[in-house]
């Protein structure tokens, strides 16, 4: 860990001591946004009972947060270029903290949903620019290690969320789940304002029509996936999906004409970036699909209780926490596509072994297969994220960061929707795991295709990025 904060002559990024404070601000902000999803899921039955509403309506406490967050990722990433990433990150954290207080004080479902939407917008502001801030904070030689740390934080948040939620609910009522964000948020706010790199926002307009198109495109897509995943009439999902496709076409047309596009077309002219995005999206489809499919497999097919099912999931995020930082560190030294491809092979083998899991299998037989998936994903994600961030031109880092976050969210949502569609068609749950294997195979093809490109282009040594000044040395 101390290597992450070492300083060498000629390093870009922040000096070591200020790097620590900036990273701590990012870790706390990410943890709040990630833990919130899985922690609140545990509380839905309690919320339904206390607010006297149906369980079906309380599902929107989770859905609305995720839809708003996903729909505004690209918008927030682009807007940060105008006002600076530091200001947007601080504003997003402040909104998240205020909305958390509002959610804790809510005494009706309607007000709770309003504050959950505000939380989703605040989370979008922080998550959309997180990877690009890592690129500004750390020297290029340590970027893979830094992104490995980010993967550890995200995996740890997903793993800790259900346990933390259950622990809190065993002692106090559900509003305290939201109140927990207040002390962490205030500390993170102070650290972000104090330590994140100061930079000037660019001059020029904001692509408002493109922002509207992006929100409609992504929002309707996630509504379509949610509708499909919950077994609603097919025509509803098709209507939302049609709106998403139409809005997407108009959005892409706008991006080719806008002077300051949300999604710069030249970003996708870089072959390494395109392939890394493709591999990421397909791999996250496999992971999102597996998380839902395994819940049905363990409980309905194998007869495990919900508590046992939660424990059977644990090796996946724990393996990412252990393997991710190591994979990121190795990606700074070897071809990251090699690491990512190896991870995809292990992930594919893990999903195949779960699809072949017999119904009378014991706990240990299930645990090692889930752990194999986690090891594979931990080997894949940090090197692939490093490829996405370093293959993009430095001046487009913020846009690349928004694409990274959006790709992850879209992939996971599509995976969840595929499980819902297969279950609605009465297909066996094992069939969805085989679909996960297929998406991982396609991701492997994309990862292998970029290998000669990475070998030919020594991006790290070729880049000569400008020195990022620390907050104490520059006045905004």
UniProtKB/TrEMBL annotation:
Entry GO terms, CC: membrane
The keyword Ligase appears for this protein: no
Parts of the chain that traverse the membrane: 21-44, 64-81, 88-105, 111-130, 142-161, 173-196, 208-228, 234-252, 273-298, 310-331, 338-357, 431-449
Keyword Transmembrane recorded: yes
Signal peptide (residue range): none
InterPro entries noted in UniProt: MFS (IPR011701), MFS_dom (IPR020846), MFS_trans_sf (IPR036259)
Topology versus the membrane: Multi-pass membrane protein
SUPFAM superfamilies found in the cross-reference section: MFS general substrate transporter
Gene3D superfamilies to which the protein is assigned, alphabetical: MFS general substrate transporter like domains, Multidrug resistance protein D
Domain Major facilitator superfamily (MFS) profile: 22-455
Molecular function as annotated in GO: transmembrane transporter activity
Protein name: MFS transporter
Organism: Billgrantia tianxiuensis
């Amino acid at each position: 860990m101390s290597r992450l904060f070492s300083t060498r002559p000629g390093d870009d990024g922040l000096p070591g001591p200020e790097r620590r404070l900036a990273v701590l601000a990012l870790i706390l902000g990410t943890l709040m946004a990630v833990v919130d999803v899985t922690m609140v899921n545990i509380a839905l039955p309690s919320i339904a009972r206390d607010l006297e509403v149906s369980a079906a309506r309380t599902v929107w406490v989770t859905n609305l947060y995720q839809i708003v967050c996903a729909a505004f990722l690209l918008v927030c990433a682009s807007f940060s270029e105008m006002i600076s990433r530091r200001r947007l990150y601080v504003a997003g954290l402040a909104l998240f903290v205020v909305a958390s207080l509002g959610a804790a004080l809510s005494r009706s479902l309607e007000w709770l949903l309003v504050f959950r939407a505000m939380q989703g917008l605040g989370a979008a502001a922080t998550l959309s620019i997180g990877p690009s801030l890592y690129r500004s904070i750390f020297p290029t030689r340590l970027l893979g290690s830094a992104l490995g740390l980010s993967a550890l934080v995200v995996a740890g948040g997903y793993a800790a969320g259900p346990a933390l939620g259950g622990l809190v609910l065993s002692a106090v009522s559900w509003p305290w789940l939201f109140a927990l964000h207040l002390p962490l948020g205030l500390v993170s706010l102070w650290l972000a304002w104090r330590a994140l790199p100061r930079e000037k926002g660019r001059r020029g307009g904001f692509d408002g029509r493109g922002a509207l198109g992006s929100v409609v495109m992504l929002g309707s897509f996630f509504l379509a996936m949610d509708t499909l995943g919950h077994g609603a009439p097919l025509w509803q999902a098709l209507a939302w999906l049609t709106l998403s496709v139409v809005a997407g076409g108009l959005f892409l047309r706008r991006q080719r004409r806008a002077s300051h596009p949300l999604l710069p077309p030249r970003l996708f002219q870089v072959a390494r970036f395109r392939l890394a995005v493709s591999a990421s999206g397909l791999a996250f489809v496999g992971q999102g699909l597996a998380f839902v499919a395994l819940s049905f497999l363990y409980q309905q097919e194998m007869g495990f209780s919900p508590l046992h099912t939660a424990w059977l999931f644990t090796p996946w995020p724990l393996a990412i926490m252990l393997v991710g930082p190591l994979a990121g560190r190795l990606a700074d030294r070897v071809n990251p596509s090699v690491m990512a491809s190896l991870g995809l092979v292990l992930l594919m083998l893990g999903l195949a072994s779960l699809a072949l899991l017999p119904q009378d299998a014991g706990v240990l037989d299930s645990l090692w297969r889930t752990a194999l998936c986690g090891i594979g994903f931990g080997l894949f994600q940090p090197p692939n994220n490093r490829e996405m961030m370093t293959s993009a031109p430095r001046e487009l880092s913020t846009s690349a960061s928004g694409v990274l976050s959006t790709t992850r969210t879209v992939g996971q949502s599509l995976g969840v929707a595929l499980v819902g569609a297969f279950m609605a068609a009465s297909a066996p749950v094992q069939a969805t795991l085989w679909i996960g294997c297929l998406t991982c195979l396609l991701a492997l093809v994309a990862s292998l295709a970029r290998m000669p490109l990475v070998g030919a282009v020594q991006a790290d040594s070729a880049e000569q990025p400008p020195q990022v000044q620390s907050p104490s040395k520059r006045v905004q």
